[in-house]
Amino acid sequence: MRIVLDAMGSDTHPGPEVHAALEAYQLWGEPIILVGPESELGAQFTELGGDTSTVEIVHAPEVLKMTDKPAKTARGKAENSMAVGMDLLKDGKADAFVTAGNTGGAMATALFRLGRIHGIKRPGLAVAFPVQDGYSVMLDIGANTDCRPEYLLQFALMGSVYVSQAFDKKSPRIGLLSNGEEPGKGNILVKETYPLLEASGVNFIGNVEPKEIFAGKVDVVIADGFDGNVFIKTSEAVSKFLIDIIRDQIRSSAISSIGGLLAKPAFTHVRKLLDPSEYGAAPLLGVNGLVFIGHGRSDTKALVNAIRVARQAVEGDVLEAVQSAIRERLAEK
After folding, report:
1. CB 217 within 8 Å of CB 132
2. What is the pTM of this model?
3. What 3-state class would DSSP assign to 281?
4. Which CATH number describes the domain made up of 124-276?
5. Alpha helices for the chain (secondary structure H)
6. How far apart are the C-alpha atoms of 301 and 206, rounded to whole Å?
């Protein structure tokens, strides 16, 4: 399995990427393809004392920065690390591409280099997050801030296939994010999307509020990119806030500190469960290639987990499954 890692993606590149490539080789025994300035990456390996035979370095002299305008820069910087990496994917020299770089830039580059799956109007970002007794996946979380009902319908189709193939969940339950469970609740977009999902053939269980989502009542949550992004970022912020409060209270007195020591294994498990770096990266579903986008602040652990998620998608043949599902949908029309 050949996974491409954008070595110039994270906020502190290329250190986390180089460390992640080395750790990934130790875990899976297969070299990661690192894309970036060859001399800079080589110097990093020399500094770490790493064995360059455990990775493959592909030279890319340009970097797509977080401050760059996505569409303009994706066209203008033809040799940036994202473009070079996705070209490897397009040419069949790699199975998946992972980056912690500019989300808009990654989407624009994927559209220019790989193109959309035939029939897909808008690609969407799907991210896994913890809920009671497992995980749910939300789609879209930021690739499309403004959506039409048909976009959300396609998100549901792609999300259903992704969870089924990558997470081995047959007939995953699909929910539509809303401010109420009843069919008539929600804004205009939600109200117009509801009947499309009912008639789509996916396992649509109706509108869902956040309390149902975190109770584990749904496997895939469908939303426009604006609401999905706010939902995910709020959830991460609240999780960190609660963990910080609990830690401060435990340290507030000798008695609570003793209790904290006894409960430390449980707190460690909860902290790990709620840590965004455990989930690695979000797949950009709807483009002709397996592209995964992580946080700009991704560290080595997050990038290794991103590689793990990419490997799961390759093993589950997610791309072919999504393409097949969309072809079948188009044939029905």
Report:
1. no
2. 0.87
3. coil
4. 3.40.718.10
5. 15-28, 38-48, 70-76, 81-90, 103-113, 149-166, 188-198, 210-214, 225-250, 254-262, 264-274, 300-315, 318-332
6. 36
- Which residues does 186 contact at the CB level (< 8 Å), separation at least 6? 176, 178, 179, 180, 194, 207
CA distance 26 to 125: 29
Q: Amino acid letter at 89?
A: L
What residues contact residue 31 under an 8 Å CB cut-off, 6+ apart?
25, 53, 54, 55, 56
* Residue pLDDT, tens place only, 72-130: 666 667 789 999 999 999 999 999 999 999 888 898 899 999 999 999 999 999 998 88
Q: Which residue has the tokens 């497992």?
A: 134
Q: What is the pLDDT of residues 274-332, one digit of tens each?
A: 666 777 889 999 999 999 999 888 999 999 999 999 999 999 899 998 888 888 877 77
**In the chain, where the domains are located:** 3-120+286-317, 124-276
> Could you tell me which of 137, 52, 105, 77 has the C-alpha nearest to residue 312?
137
Q: How many residues does the chain have?
A: 333
| Three-state secondary structure call for residue 174 | strand
Q: How far apart are CA 80 and CA 64, in angstroms?
A: 6
Look up the CATH architecture of domain 3-120+286-317. Answer: 3-Layer(aba) Sandwich (3.40)
Q: Do domains 3-120+286-317 and 124-276 have the same CATH topology?
A: yes
Report residue 55: phi and psi, to 5°. Answer: -135, 165
User: Phi and psi at residue 143, in whole multiples of 5°?
Assistant: -75, -30
